[in-house]
Amino acid sequence: GRRGAFKDMMSAVKGVAFNWRAFKVPAAVRARLISAFYMIRLRTKVRSTSDLLKTVKMVLAKHRELNGFLSFFGSSMSGEESFSRPKTNASWWIMPESTVLYLMGLAAQSLQARQVSPFEDHPCHKDLPGNFMFLKPQMDYNAVLAEGATSMDPTRRLAIANGFAARMYKQDNQEGNSGGPG
Asked: Which branch of life, at top level (predicted)?
């Protein structure tokens, strides 16, 4: 895949050693991004679970009303209905690799805009063939920085939320179409 091609390309360059630790996203930035990711996922899960429970309560109320109507005329629903609790699936809580790469790229872009060394040379900025880490700029960081350092965090959160929402929707549709867990 893309990762293998990038690895082959990097191993073909003889005598060049990279200090990958220099590109490690600082712990504070990493913690904020991961926290934002999980909070967005959790809000989405809580909202969808709440909507599902409201729908189930409404359906049960309609079912009881129909049973009452049928029993008034001496009839009943045929067959027994069993409502067993489905197995819980926590796949919504798993952070896919594509999202991890997206977060790394987003962090590197914001650190590059703040001129933190060595993030101007981070692989997410290099649009090279086979570079699976490349990420198109998500916003105009220089304009955001010109407005002031305090505007960076809300803007970053908005970019993260929009990016996550698009990625989650795309991922959920792919899993739903392939019959995977969801």
From this structure: Eukaryota
26-50 per-position pLDDT tens digit: 889 889 888 988 999 999 999 999 9
Q: Are 123 and 133 in contact (CB under 8 A)?
A: yes
Q: What secondary structure letter does DSSP report for 116?
A: -
Q: Give the residue among 152, 51, 172, 59 at the shortest CA–CA distance from 110.
A: 152
Bond prior to 118 in cis (omega within 30° of 0): yes
CA angle 69, 74, 79 (to 5 degrees): 85
Extract the tokens encoding 167: 């990625």
List the chain domain ranges: 2-9+21-71+95-172
The answer to whether the beta carbons of residues 39 and 93 sit under 8 Å apart is no
| Residues 171, 174: Cα–Cα separation, whole Å | 5
Cβ atoms within 10 Å of 29's Cβ, excluding its own: 18
- Rounded to two decimals, what is the model's pTM? 0.43
